[in-house]
Amino acid sequence: MVRALLTDEGSRRAAATDRSGHRPATLPDAVVRATTVEEVVETLRWATASRTPVVPRGAGTGLAGGSSARAGEVVLDLSGMDRIVAVRPDDQVAVVEPGVLTADLDAAAGEHGLFYAPDPASAAISSIGGNIATNAGGLRCAKYGVTREAVLGLDLVLADGRRVTTGRQTVKGVAGYDLTGLVVGSEGTLAVVVGATLRLRPRPAATATLAAHFDGLVAAAAASAALTAAGLQPSVQELVDAAGLEAVDAARGTALRSRGAALLLVQCDGHGARTEIDAVAGVLAPFATSWRATADPMEAEELLAARRAVLPALERTGDVFIEDVAVPRSQLAAAVAGVQAISARTGVRIATVAHAGDGNLHPVVVVERGTPVTEGAPWEAACAVFDLALALGGTLTGEHGVGLLKRTWLHRELGEDSLALQRGIKAVFDPLGILNPGKGI
Ligand SMILES: Cc1cc2nc3c(=O)[nH]c(=O)nc-3n(C[C@H](O)[C@H](O)[C@H](O)COP(=O)(O)OP(=O)(O)OC[C@H]3O[C@@H](n4cnc5c(N)ncnc54)[C@H](O)[C@@H]3O)c2cc1C
Description:
Its cofactor is FAD. By secondary structure, this protein is an alpha+beta fold. It is built from 16 helices and 18 strands.
């Protein structure tokens, strides 16, 4: 018997959408706040029997409308399944429930001299289950790869309530098709993640951090591309434009904007961190107006915290739609120049922050509070950015997922044959279309 079935309006409203700016016109019928696998199984058996669509939900920090729900649907909230079941330093793995916050896992790994590499800027507020379902990226992903690289195995509940274990406990293994990799990034449309075995890594022996300032975003993006072309591999390579710096200064009382119109934040780690950061400085020097390196962990953490604060700081200045396109890294400067041109042409304010080491840009459309971001001029500007990314050989989404908002664009990137194949896969996992209908593919 599911104990945590909530039907009051407050609970339904709280679980109705994510942080994408999408506002569903109606509320879901109910919210199940599961705390055990058995409750998830029971919920999905009931949903299959009654043909009721179910929207899995982690922490609700998604930026694509993936966990948005409406009338006729039931939200399956997994945030209460938040136990770190085991951290096994000998094998460098952790076993967790889906509601564990990303930063909490990293902290638990830290007690054993290890770390959990994928670190979305939302690490303090997003769940591992949501990270797996969106294949989240983050600041350190430039060197260590995105969530998929860290997921060894999954415990799943299928739409009809069957439990399935995929993957393995080992760091290698190729038995059968890679169902783990398939479920990672499937946005709650194939199965509900109720447990995960995750890869941890040894904490780097040393880090060195460099903040470089530029007189414009295009110069900073060109400098970032030059680092990649030079064969350097920093663990962090993050770009923030003038609008982002101004918002952070206003929110945190810093003076980053006074140092330049764009910031490139670079961190190298490992035994050779200082040598590598010297090489980084050599590549950036011809592009930058100033730069400063530090080996002080406190100062480095301050800079990283400023970078993580960009999106919340912009959210203080208006309603936002956070885009997530990625381009080949050699095209980064062309991409940021294109975004600036779109902003000038449409008159829509767009701030840009980027996981530059991955070629992953977040152009942030900022509108006056109460203005819809998914229609009119803001949405036209957003669509122009999608066009730009595809024209540069890129993708509609580097890490946030397709969700609800980019679904109509998907065929442009994948083509009809690939899309048909993906719909076939969905039908194998979920023939009745119970799980998160209308999202992803
Ligand atoms: C300030 C801010 C900064 C951000 N920075 C980053 C960043 O750097 N990198 C990045 O990748 N993202 C970033 N995000 C986006 C967001 O945090 C990620 O997409 C995150 O992975 C979502 O996790 P969540 O727990 O909030 O999931 P939710 O928003 O609750 O759900 C996201 C999707 O996952 C599905 N889902 C959730 N849990 C499960 C489960 N257990 N089983 C099956 N499906 C499930 C949902 O149905 C939905 O489709 C940021 C968001 C904010 C607000």
